[in-house]
Amino acid sequence: MKQKIVMMFFCFALIFGGGLSQASESSGGPGPNPQILAELKLFSKAASAIIAGYVDEANARDLLYHAVAGMLASLDRYSMFIDPKNFEYFQMHVKGAYGGLGAELIKKDGLPAINKIMPGGAAEKAGLQIDDRFLKVGDVPVSGKELPEVSGLIRGEVGSSVTLTIWRTKENRLFDVSVTRSSVEIPAVHDVHKIGKAIGYLRVSNFQENTFEQFNQELEGLVQKEKIKALIIDLRDNGGGLLPGAIQMAEKFIPKGKLIVTVQSKIDAQRKEHMTAQEKPPYDFRVVILVNHSSASASEVFSAAMQFYGRATIVGEQTFGKASVQSIIPLDEHSAMKLTTARYLTPGGKKIDHVGITPDLVIPFGAAQDGSPDTQVKAAVELLKEFL
């Protein structure tokens, strides 16, 4: 047990905000620390005494999980234990995809029912239809269960199969169908449209593994099809995610050789100055970035770089101020630790932890009552009014 705890496989990924990432490269991690090995005798003694003497049954793995959770809770607000219940959720949301049906579910008469089917997805290929009701997922009855629990039962490895018991109301028919799960992409870029004659607008909700690809595709569509000449990037309520997406987005606007972010860490592989690499950024049009108090971490990395090099006007409210970096250290196949291992500095060398980024134009949020844009979007449009 001691050896397994200390010699854990070390798999790191830069995480800005919440989330879990499988690293593209890994190392064996640090060697055993003699001091820790000695102190682990205390843990081993306590765990052995609990298992041997506690009045009810005690599980050694559960004791380890609670011990790790307690250690991480003593550090900072971002270091935490990722238990088996949340492990799949973390993986899914950082990867930005999962194995599933490609269908949106709602509750009808106490049963999960299909409300929307994605073209080309597993549900469509299996012949499922809108309003089909789920009675069982595999051998598990789902009547009365909450939709997140049902969705968890449906999800699985891409290419694996799940048997669904379906009630098709319009045919008054009960039947089983085997569905082969396909990859379902979680959108990170939303509300893409044109304002006026030549202003593009898109909202980035988080930075997951596929955020840059989605951003790049949607932006190219706005440029090629809509002929935009200015852009509003909405990062309000974007709590962060993975660093690479923020750097790649910055490279679309900032010239080669410019510092985007500096990461300071004890770990050599993490300690780095991230520079833009493209010879010439493809887009030189005017950009406005919308932020608020919930814009954090990777969204702050991108916003700070764009502001520092004069490539965007920042509009909205002071950002959250999260400049710490979390690494994911797997404990076993079902759990992991999220541990703060580094901090970052903006291109100007500023520490924004617990401070945030001050917008160029501070505009409090105000909801529109007549269907028109909110106050912050209105301000952004006003700055770009020559393109209306």
Brief synopsis:
The protein is α+β, with helices and mostly antiparallel strands. Helix content is 27%, strand content 29%. It is built from ten helices and 21 strands.
Structure description:
The chain has 3 domains: 2-95, no CATH class; 97-185, Pdz3 Domain (Roll), CATH 2.30.42; 189-323 and 342-387, 2-enoyl-CoA Hydratase, Chain A, domain 1 (Alpha-Beta Complex). Helix 7 (211-224) packs parallel to helix 8 (243-251) and helix 8 (243-251) runs parallel beside helix 9 (298-308). The longest helix is centred in the first third of the chain and has 20 residues, at 34-53. Mean pLDDT is 88; it is low at 1-29. The strands form 6 sheets. It has a 6-stranded mixed β-sheet, sandwiched between helices. Strands 2, 15, 16, 19 and 20 form a 5-stranded antiparallel β-sheet that branches. The protein has a 4-stranded antiparallel β-sheet with strand order 7-6-8-9. The protein is built from 10 helices and 21 strands. It has helices at residues 2-6, 34-53, 60-73, 84-95, 122-125, 147-154, 211-224, 243-251, 298-308, 375-383, and strands at 15-16, 80-82, 97-100, 103-108, 111-117, 133-137, 140-141, 161-168, 173-180, 182-185, 189-195, 199-204, 230-234, 241-242, 259-265, 272-275, 286-291, 313-316, 324-332, 335-345, 361-362. It is α+β, with helices and mostly antiparallel strands. It is flat, with a radius of gyration of 24 Å.
